[in-house]
Amino acid sequence: MENKLFDTLEKLDIKYEMVDHEAVFTCEQAEFVKGLIDGTACKNLFLKNKKHEYFLYVLPDDQRADLKKLGKENVLGNLSFAGEQDLWDMLKLKTGGVTPLGIINDENSAVKVLLSKDLAGKKILLHPNTNTATVSLEFDDLIKFIKYERNDYALV
Predict the structure, then answer these.
(1) At residue 30, what are phi and psi to the nearest 5 degrees?
(2) 3-state class (DSSP) for residue 143
(3) Is 150 exposed, middle or buried (0-12, 13-18, 19+ CB in 10 A)?
(4) Under the phi-then-psi rule, with left for phi > 0, alpha for psi from -120 to 50, and beta for the rest, what region is 150?
(5) Most buried residue among 19, 67, 78, 80 by CB atoms closer than 10 A?
(6) CA-CA distance, 116 to 153, in Å (whole number)?
(7) C-alpha dist (Å) from residue 156 to 2, 25, 73, 117
(8) Beta partners for residue 80, in sequence order
(9) For position 96, what pLDDT does the model report?
């Protein structure tokens, strides 16, 4: 799974740094990673609405996610956390490894990526489809990757 991701980043000429570390499952557990690699740490939430549409919300790890406001302001309906099975079925990811880079496994480009405007122009920290490593890449390169994978996205 990871090789496909790194091959795609290379194909798109996306520069990144990577650091391996022990498995982390929460933003709190991942706090130490900020000292290992440069960038803004992100919180990644896999969400769904009642129409069974799926969203991956990416925001700075120190921000609180207001799902009610997010759904209302972006006309997405009532949002809730998607389950572990949905996460696996849609992105082939496990809990703790949620990342927008997981859309590489979204064969139907069905997951819409919601990116916090607060990340624009920054170097961001994301899991490379496993929670035992972190990559640092430019926000604009993430957009390039999302477009290449043909997933819809929005700045929120």
Answers:
(1) -90, 0
(2) helix
(3) exposed
(4) left
(5) 67
(6) 11
(7) 28, 25, 9, 6
(8) 48
(9) 84
Determine the pLDDT at residue 12.
97
Secondary structure element (H or E) that encloses residue 10, with its range: helix 2-11
CA-based R_g, the chain, Å = 14
Task: Please answer whether residues 42 and 126 qualify as being in contact, where contact means their C-beta atoms are separated by less than 8 angstroms.
Answer: yes
The answer to whether residue 2 scores a pLDDT higher than 70 is no
Under 8 Å between Cβ of 56 and 102: yes
Higher pLDDT, 25 or 85: 85
Whole-structure pTM value: 0.93
Give the three-class secondary structure for 8.
Answer: helix
Nearest to 25 by CA among 100, 127, 119: 127
> Would you say 149 and 106 are in contact if contact means Cβ atoms under 8 Å apart?
yes
Please state, rounded to an integer, the average pLDDT across all residues of the chain. 93
List pLDDT tens digits, range 90-129.
Answer: 999 988 889 999 999 999 999 999 999 999 999 999 999 9
Contacting residues for 121 by C-beta, under 8 A, at least 6 apart: 139, 140
